[in-house]
From TrEMBL:
EC supergroup of this enzyme: transferase
Protein name: Phosphate acetyltransferase
Residues in DRTGG domain copies: 213-317
Subunit structure: Homohexamer.
Acyltransferase among keywords: yes
């Protein structure tokens, strides 16, 4: 019975994608796979029991149907936090061990998904390091590229976990950073005993969101071409510049939503004619009739929001970096990225799987 903890240097690093990708690949290779998420931060009632929304989704993708109380023994609610901070909560690691024993029964390998960073949950002794040591299982740490990689953190984790750390996965790496990893950072990590198990390249589809979902997340409303709310947004551009400059940038960025003031009909028209997936009009300003008509003719939805352009752009940045993996096409793509870019032969050897 093997176990593997999948943790990360920060929240929103792609743990669900990698857990699902690993689970599907191991199942395809003929192994029976168990799954648990010891600490959940998204409370959800499942069959009358408190569980975690992400954990329920991953179980569904992997075709599992374990007791939610065993899959996620610790669910963080406001009431839980009050008790934990006042020292009225103990025995949490014991319940995690009990859950692990239940879900790993008769399984070849059990994937244990972390929550937040490796230190999240320290206030109640359910941080990744405490859980990994208590369960005595190997660990893989994901580091998602966000301007740079957290190589110091990864080296420190190797010192902390020692032989329990199987290696690291570098996720969401842009093409222009690949050479630096292969020639500089990868060898530097390996020299410190940190094995790089995989480098997953950035894929625009993985951060994409449907127009309808985007409108909900922004707190806006779609005011035209409602039938095209399934169109996909991969990135965004801010249309505050002169039209000529905007056109230069716009041509380079496909599938980009355009965030523009409701009074900038010149930029709005260029964006519509250039087949952007949607327009996001800020300042709660309605577009003129020409823009509305072109939007309907070209079937490009317009989302109207209250906030100013800067606030909406900041929200968009958060949404695209943290959007959850829910669509079937994204799960399939994520599973392929994981399967093609991680050293499964080494992992299987580390876990004693034959």
């Amino acid at each position: 019975m093997a176990g593997l903890y999948i943790g990360s240097t920060t929240g929103y690093s792609g743990k669900n994608m990698i857990v699902m990708g690993m689970g599907l690949r191991l199942q395809k290779d003929g192994f029976t796979v168990g799954y648990m998420k010891p600490v959940g931060a998204m409370p959800m009632e499942i069959d009358g029991k408190l569980g975690d929304e992400d954990a329920a989704f991953v179980q569904d993708v992997l075709g599992l149907n374990e007791d939610p109380a065993m899959v996620t023994p610790v669910v963080v609610t406001q009431d839980f936090k009050v008790k934990a901070f006042t020292g009225k909560m103990d025995g949490l690691l014991d319940s995690i061990v009990e859950g692990y024993e239940a879900v790993s029964k008769d399984k070849d390998v059990t994937l244990v998904a972390g929550s937040g960073s490796m230190y999240s949950g320290k206030y109640c002794d359910t941080d990744a390091i405490s859980v990994v040591r208590r369960l005595g299982i190997k660990t893989v740490i994901i580091d998602r590229f966000q301007k740079e990689l957290k190589y110091d953190y990864l080296m420190a984790m190797k010192e902390t976990l020692g032989d329990l750390m199987a290696g690291v996965i570098l996720n969401d790496v842009p093409p222009n950073f690949m050479d630096e990893i292969s020639q500089l950072l990868g060898p530097a990590l390996e020299a410190k005993g940190v094995r790089v198990l995989g480098v997953i390249p950035r894929d625009p589809l993985m951060g994409a969101i449907k127009v309808g979902d985007l409108a909900d997340r922004l707190g806006g409303k779609i005011i035209s071409a409602h039938n095209k709310s399934e169109r996909v947004v991969e990135s965004f551009l801010i249309g505050t510049m002169q039209v000529e400059n905007f056109m230069t940038h716009f041509r380079k960025k496909k599938n980009s939503a355009i965030i523009v003031g409701g009074d900038r009909s010149d930029v709005q028209l260029v964006a519509l004619e250039g087949d952007c997936p949607c327009l996001i009009l800020t300042g709660n300003l309605y577009p003129n009739d020409i823009i509305l008509t072109r939007s309907e003719v070209l079937e490009t939805p317009i989302i109207m929001v209250r906030e100013d352009t800067f606030t909406v752009a900041k929200k968009m940045d958060d949404i695209l970096s943290r959007h959850k993996l829910r669509d079937a096409i994204k799960i399939k793509q994520g599973a392929e990225l994981v399967s093609n870019n991680i050293d499964f032969e080494f992992l299987k050897k580390e876990l004693g799987l034959k």
